[in-house]
């Protein structure tokens, strides 16, 4: 089974592109969705201890947590140290299920793939990218998003230019949905034909 790592900075189009892979029959594990699921459904003692002000009825209130972190960005590191091992565990279970089902491809959508050195856990890395202007417009258009919060998140992400350099495949999402979909199909075909990278191609 070939494990695809999909990444890109905030608002570059990861979720949209992951959906396109899913529509082509590739099973997808979305790290952000796993985090949200943990907050909604799991009573994690370490989170209760570290962020008591963001807990409602035993589980994390994500909006409150987000406000707390925007006010105190240094706490993000602590949050990551609690959350990332849980995400990693879910990822392993997902891959085991896919292997057992005999899948030929599986995709991990990992926003912080390079930052947490997850390249070692995947066979090929696909990076989504677009113009920084478009990125900012997309993100600031989201309800609840502020310039401060965006800057807090960007400060924890590797610059897009560096991600692009490290990519095996690039998908530009500034040219519309159809162009991105064609590119997804092309990448799947390349992988199925054993071509794992376009680096130095
Ligand atoms: C900071 C939190 C509370 C903000 O919640 P909110 O609902 O507003 O945003 P959401 O989760 O949808 O994230 C928005 C974007 O920021 C990115 N992002 C989230 N956390 C981080 C982080 N620690 N570092 C860099 N980027 C991040 C996400 O991948 C996504 O692209 C939340 O993102 C969170 O709990 N982050 C910590 C967990 C984490 O590291 N997640 C990254 C993927 S495992
Ligand atoms: N190929 C594309 N063509 C046009 N618009 C796109 C394309 N890909 C994504 N978008 C738009 O960009 C916005 C952000 O996309 P998306 O939510 O997929 O980003 P993301 O990288 O997953 O964000 P985050 O990092 O916050 O999770 C959405 O409004 C989406 O419709």
Automatic annotation (TrEMBL):
Major location (coarse): cytoplasm
GO cellular component, alphabetical, reads: cytoplasm
State its location(s).
Cytoplasm
User: What InterPro entries would the database entry show?
Assistant: Depp_CoAkinase, P-loop_NTPase
Database matches in Pfam families: CoaE
A Gene Ontology biological process in which this protein takes part is: coenzyme A biosynthetic process
Q: What is its EC number?
A: 2.7.1.24
Q: Which HAMAP family match?
A: Dephospho_CoA_kinase
Annotated protein name in UniProt: Dephospho-CoA kinase
Instruction: Tell me what organism the protein belongs to.
Output: Neorhizobium lilium
């Amino acid at each position: 089974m070939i494990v695809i790592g999909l990444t890109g900075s905030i608002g570059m189009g990861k979720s949209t592109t992951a959906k396109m892979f899913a529509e082509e029959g590739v099973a997808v594990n979305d790290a952000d969705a796993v985090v949200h699921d943990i907050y909604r459904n799991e009573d994690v003692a370490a989170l209760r201890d570290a962020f008591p002000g963001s807990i409602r009825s035993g589980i994390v209130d994500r909006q409150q947590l987000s406000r707390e972190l925007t006010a105190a960005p240094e706490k993000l590191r602590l949050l990551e140290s609690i959350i990332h091992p849980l995400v990693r565990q879910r990822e392993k279970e997902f891959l085991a299920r896919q292997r057992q089902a005999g899948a030929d491809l599986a995709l991990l959508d990992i926003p912080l793939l390079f930052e947490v050195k997850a390249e070692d856990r995947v066979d090929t890395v696909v990076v989504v990218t677009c113009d920084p202007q478009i990125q900012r417009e997309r993100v600031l258009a989201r309800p609840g998003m502020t310039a401060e919060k965006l800057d807090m998140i960007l400060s924890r992400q590797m610059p897009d230019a560096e991600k692009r350099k490290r990519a095996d495949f690039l998908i530009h999402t500034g040219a519309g949905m159809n162009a991105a979909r064609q590119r997804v199909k092309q990448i799947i075909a390349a992988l199925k034909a054993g071509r794992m990278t376009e680096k130095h191609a």
